[in-house]
Design a protein that fits this description.
- The chain has 2 domains: 2-222, Rossmann fold, CATH 3.40.50; 229-233 and 245-504, UDP-N-acetylmuramoyl-L-alanine:D-glutamate ligase (3-Layer(aba) Sandwich), CATH 3.40.1190.
- The protein is α/β, with parallel strands linked by helices.
- It contains 17 helices and 18 strands.
- The strands form 2 sheets. The protein has an 11-stranded mixed β-sheet. Strands 4-3-2-5-6-7-8 form a 7-stranded parallel β-sheet, sandwiched between helices.
- It is 40% helix and 14% strand.
- Helix 8 packs across helix 14 (442-455).
- The longest helix is centred in the C-terminal third of the chain and has 23 residues, at 460-482.
- Bound molecules: ligand NAX and potassium ion.
- Ligand NAX is lined by residues 9, 12-13, 27-28, 31, 54-61, 83, 85, 88, 129-137, 141, 160-162, 186-187, 210, 212.
């Protein structure tokens, strides 16, 4: 799914109005009508509604919702915030209609003392500002936002299109924003919903289709995308009947050190479980029994050193379709030097994670030696060590995209919505996964998955998008069986099979 900017959403709106054609008043009626339907489906008339309206089209949506709920016999109080701006035309149209029929339900609020006392089980609808917000909310309006947020523990707050105060595509850090339980947003995810810094504000996001022009949507390109199952189905490559293990590639995994062999084992298991034809693991001598016993499907090459690896560059040749390097590897100087030599000779796209990333952040010039199309998988701290700090999440995404273009790499920044920067500047957010995956070893599993997919001739872009998806999907299945608390990284691997079955069979 494409993620459009606020400016593009305005264009989509205008394009739909001109080409469907539909009047802007009717488009508002249609969009807000969907919200009213959602509200009535989720809350019976025993819930009194308090609908707070700004004076733009978001406020207009609030007026349409109020009218529909009142027509259906709901108890509604409409709170119009009178902050001096000129009302939009569509707002005025729906205001007149409401005023004619339900004048007694309308209250004007011109400062924070006008904030109503709310009865138990009230539902607050936030229709103050939407995508038209053009500066942080200030003065008594900010006071109203705080008052609404004070109700959060006692009353349900439903935001229309955007929680008011949240900017669609720039940072809203340290500004007043409604903290909604639910956000009913029109047609598209907004970038703001996918940023960790906004975790507290949008609640559950429900995307309501409002019939914006499919022509506009298809033909307009965006930098940001959210992955979905349909996209994965176009990427997934079923195995062919006459194939053999050679068809699915020989991967080399360079991982593990004394005390961190578990990372190597998790990566190896995941690599095999996504279908790599063959897997060899380069591990220090201390890990030999551990790996052979834990994963009999993998072959082992042991380093001359007992506790960490420093000779893997001698192995890394064209026999291997790809290499995954980093989990539990350690950052010893000899390991770093072997990585440098490996990067000088091995030129296929590879997967670089964990300690291999830490080595690159100590020797940043090595970043330029990483083969084009390789996949880096930093978590936010590793990302910062590699590329420096950012003032906010939007800046961090811009940095991600810039570095992916500059280095011609795929950079997968881990998080609730893992963000994948591509060499062409596009950024994809992965839609699967859950907080149960915030546990040691999850990243090692991802490295194994990505390595296994590259081995099978998935393009780097296909591998990184599908890998992130299936990793999160398997994690979601694990959490569904076991709870987010009890699941471990090993459970992600155990659920990879069911994830493939559910998504692709
Ligand atoms: N295509 C769509 O997505 C549709 C959008 N509609 C609604 O239209 C909204 C956008 O409407 P508008 O562009 O009128 O924008 P808003 O309703 O978000 O607000 C714009 C108004 O608020 C003022 N304003 C902005 N920031 C302010 C601040 N911090 N303090 C005080 N005043 C401020 C602006 O000057 C303008 O008057 C969407 O969020 C959605 O709710 C729907 O009605 C129809 C379809
Ligand atoms: K809103």
């Amino acid at each position: 799914m494409k993620i459009f900017s606020a400016a593009q959403i305005r264009e989509a709106d205008a394009f739909t109005i001109a080409h469907e054609p539909v009047s802007s008043t009717d488009l508002m009626g249609r969009a807000a009508g969907k919200c009213a339907d959602w509200l009535m489906e989720h809350y019976p008339p025993s819930h009194p509604f308090y609908i707070f309206c700004g004076k733009g089209n978001n406020g207009g949506d609030g007026l349409v919702i109020a009218q529909k709920l009142l027509d259906e016999g709901y108890v509604v109080t409409v709170c119009l915030l009178e902050y001096g701006s000129k009302a939009s035309e569509d707002y005025i149209y729906y205001y007149r209609r409401l005023q004619q029929q339900y004048a007694g339900r309308i209250r004007e609020i011109a400062d924070v003392t006008g904030f109503p006392e709310l009865p138990p089980s009230a539902v607050i609808v936030d229709a103050i500002f939407g995508t038209g917000l053009n500066k942080p909310i200030e003065g008594w309006l900010a006071g109203v936002i705080h008052k609404i947020n004070d109700q959060h523990p006692r009353h349900t707050i439903v935001a229309i299109d955007m929680p008011s105060g949240l900017k669609a595509d720039t940072s809203s850090r340290n500004t007043p924003v409604i903290q909604a339980h639910h956000t009913l947003s029109f047609e598209f995810y907004k970038l703001a919903f996918l940023l960790p810094e906004n975790a507290a504000v949008a609640g559950q996001v429900h995307i309501l289709p409002i019939g914006l022009s499919p022509e506009y949507i298809t033909h307009t390109s965006t930098r940001y995308h959210l992955t979905d199952l349909d996209m994965m189905r176009t990427i997934y490559m079923p195995r062919t009947p006459f194939s053999h293990k050679g068809t699915y590639g020989h991967a080399l995994l360079i991982a593990g050190s004394r005390g961190k062999m578990g990372a190597a084992v998790l990566s190896a298991k995941a690599c095999i479980r996504v279908g790599a034809g063959l897997l060899s693991c380069h591990i220090p001598d201390c890990g030999y029994d551990i790996m052979q016993i834990s994963e009999p499907c993998a072959m082992c090459i042991t380093d001359e050193l007992p506790d960490h690896s420093a000779h893997f560059h001698e192995q890394a040749d064209a026999r291997y379709k790809t290499i995954g390097i980093g989990p539990g590897l350690g950052t010893a100087t000899a390991t770093a030097s072997s990585l440098e030599k490996l990067l000088a000779t091995y030129k296929r796209p590879m997967v670089i994670d964990a300690d291999a990333l830490n080595i690159l952040s100590v020797y940043p010039s090595l970043l330029y030696q990483v083969p084009a199309g390789s996949i880096l998988t930093p978590h936010p701290k590793e990302f910062e060590r590699l590329f420096g700090p950012s003032a906010n999440d939007v800046e961090r995404l811009e940095l991600l995209s810039k570095q992916a273009v500059r280095l011609q790499l795929y950079i997968l920044l881990k998080g609730r919505y893992t963000a994948i920067g591509c060499p062409d500047g596009a950024v994809y957010f992965n839609a699967t996964g859950n907080p149960g995956m915030a546990t040691g070893g999850s990243g090692d599993v991802l490295t194994g998955i990505l390595t296994g997919l590259l081995a099978q001739d998935y393009s780097p872009k296909a591998a990184v998008l599908l890998g992130a998806w299936i990793h999160g999907y398997a994690g979601d299945l694990a959490a569904a069986h076991l709870s987010q608390e009890a699941m471990s990284a090993a459970d992600i691997i155990s659920n990879l099979g069911s994830a493939f079955m559910e998504c692709f069979y």
